[in-house]
Design brief:
This protein has 233 residues and is α/β, with parallel strands linked by helices. It has 7 helices and 13 strands. The chain has helices spanning 41-51, 66-69, 72-79, 90-93, 105-120, 191-202, 222-231, and strands at residues 2-4, 7-9, 21-24, 30-33, 56-60, 82-86, 132-134, 145-148, 157-161, 166-168, 174-176, 179-181, 209-211. The chain has a 7-stranded mixed sheet with strand order 1-2-3-4-5-6-7, with helices on one face. It has a 4-stranded mixed sheet with strand order 8-9-10-13, with no helix packed on it. A hairpin with an 8-residue loop joins strand 8 and strand 9. The structure holds zinc ion. Zinc ion binds next to loops.
Length: 233
């Protein structure tokens, strides 16, 4: 589904667990933003083929959660694309470090169990190598600016195109059932920092469209809605 010219939500994922996006670059290449669950890779590759075979050469992982990098290894292997993420997130994306779930007893027990389940039952395999590390405020070849939005994970990034006011918020916040919400508490070790990140996004100038890791994109009154939500945190 095309959200605006050059920005697509991968078909077949609209009603699923998580969203993945394709960004058409001015140079003719395609950039995939997030890669869904382990089982989503065929869906993503089929969608990319429809847009133009062999055009995918960059994949941006907004953060190292299984529902955003599950299909990363398979899509990377099929395309040879360069993998991009925030410097702080690299070890998790490469599977060398476990994702920090939080400090409570429950989340400490849940973390290793979750890791075991994803590798064993979902047959998750991490990508071998992240090729390009990015930092806050960096302007990428996509014309997207990196906005570091930690809290949910330490190295999560959102992406912002200033010209048209397009914000890809990743899991900084969600829009489930057309209602803005915080990232999942059990998977957000620093909710205070996550709220700061939402305020940081709300302060961006000229937002017209917001896309989320979870939930439908907002294309009407996006800045007002985001600012009102951030003000109430
Ligand atoms: Zn997440």
């Amino acid at each position: 589904m095309q959200i605006v010219p050059g920005l697509h939500l991968v078909d077949g994922m609209e009603n699923g667990v998580v969203n993945a996006y394709v960004w058409e670059r001015p140079d003719g290449g395609l950039t995939l933003i997030d890669a869904g669950m382990p089982g989503d890779a065929p869906k993503i590759l089929a969608f990319l083929d429809k847009l133009g075979q062999g055009r995918l050469d960059r994949i941006i992982a907004t953060h190292g959660d299984i529902d955003h990098i599950g299909g990363l290894e398979a899509v990377q292997a099929a395309s040879g694309a360069v993998v991009v993420c925030h410097a702080v997130e690299k070890a998790v994306v490469e599977g060398r470090q476990m994702r920090v779930m939080g400090d409570s007893l429950l989340t400490r027990a849940y973390g290793p169990l979750f890791d075991f389940v994803t590798r064993t039952f979902l047959r998750y395999r991490p990508v071998q190598q992240v090729d390009e590390l990015v930092l806050d405020k960096q302007m990428l070849v996509e014309g997207l600016q990196v906005v570091h939005v930690p809290g949910h994970t330490p190295g999560q990034i959102a992406l912002f195109e200033p010209q048209r006011g397009i914000l890809i918020a990743a899991d900084a916040l969600s829009n489930r059932k057309d209602k803005l919400g915080l990232p999942t508490a059990i998977a957000t070790p620093r909710m205070d920092v996550a709220k700061d990140s939402i305020r940081k996004l709300a302060a961006l100038k000229g937002i017209q469209i917001v896309c989320f890791g979870h939930g439908v994109p907002i294309t009407q009154n996006a800045a007002e809605r985001l600012q009102a939500y951030a003000a109430g945190l």
